[in-house]
Structures are given as C-alpha cells and as structure tokens.
Write a structure and sequence with these properties.
The longest helix is centred in the C-terminal third of the chain and has 21 residues. This protein has one domain. By secondary structure, the chain is mainly alpha-helical. The protein starts with a helix and ends in a 15-residue tail after the last helix. Helix 1 crosses helix 6 and helix 4 packs parallel to helix 6.
Length: 146
C-alpha cells in the first residue's frame, strides 16, 4: 500500500511539474523562492539519502541511477543543501527550481526530472526522521484518504 501511495504521489508530482515549473528565463524579476532552514546534514542522514542505511535500502538503486546522471546528481545535492525536503510538499518543487537551473535543465522532458522524482519519492518518507524532512511528498496532499 505504501509503495502504491508513493507511486501515486510521484505521478502527481511529475504531472504538477508541467504546471509549476516554467523553464523560460525570467529577466528583470527577482523571485523569492522558498528555502528550508535545516542546516548541515548529519552523516547518518546523508547515508540514508544514498540508500546506505537500513532505513532506506530500497532507495540505493534510485540513488545510483541519479548519481550516474550529472544533472540529477547536481539537483539532489543542491536540493539537500537548500533543505528543500524540510519544506511542505507544495513548496519543495519551488525550492528546487534554482537547482534545476544550476544543473542546466532546459526542458521538462529532461530525464533528470524523472530520476530526481524517483529518488526523492523514496528517500523523503524513508529518511524523514533521521534527516528532519517534512515527510511530505509533493502532490501527496492531493491523494484520496483511505
């Protein structure tokens, strides 16, 4: 059941990217995008986000695929540094937008987006306690209650 909810949440997150993420450059407008205030991550948290912890062994494959993609790897490092996963699910995407720009994303069709979504959908629930993440998946607030 948990995997089904994660899959639905990921699907909602991916579908919301098209509505929330505008990759057209904005000039002359300063955007105030959210950023978490989590500070430096512990070694235990970093191990969890890589799938090197008993809490997130199922996430090792998603991390490995992401680490092999330069843009994906850059986005996860940046999102962790900005403490994006400490924010509510609805703010996480906005927090990660600068990370996508820094990674050189120019299209919503970039494979890095799906890789990041698979990785974050795994580690957010698995690592929330040890990392201080909100535990919310983007789009999860739209899931039907059971």
């Amino acid at each position: 059941m948990r995997k089904a909810l994660v899959c639905v949440g990921l699907g909602l997150w991916l579908s919301s990217l098209g509505a929330c993420l505008d990759l057209e450059p904005t000039t002359g407008v300063e955007q105030q995008l959210p950023q978490g205030d989590g500070g430096a991550l512990s070694d235990e948290c970093l191990a969890c986000t890589r799938g090197d912890s008993a809490l997130a062994l199922d996430c090792a494959e998603a991390y490995g695929r992401c680490a092999e993609n330069e843009a994906c790897s850059s986005i996860i490092d940046c999102s962790l540094e900005r403490s994006c996963f400490n924010l509510s699910g609805s703010e996480q995407i906005n927090c990660s937008i600068p990370c996508g720009f820094e990674a050189g994303l120019t299209s919503l069709d970039d494979p890095a987006i799906q890789l990041v979504a698979a990785w974050s959908g795994c580690i957010i629930p698995a690592c929330s306690e040890v990392c201080g993440f909100s535990g919310e998946l983007p789009g999860a607030q739209d899931l039907p209650a059971n």
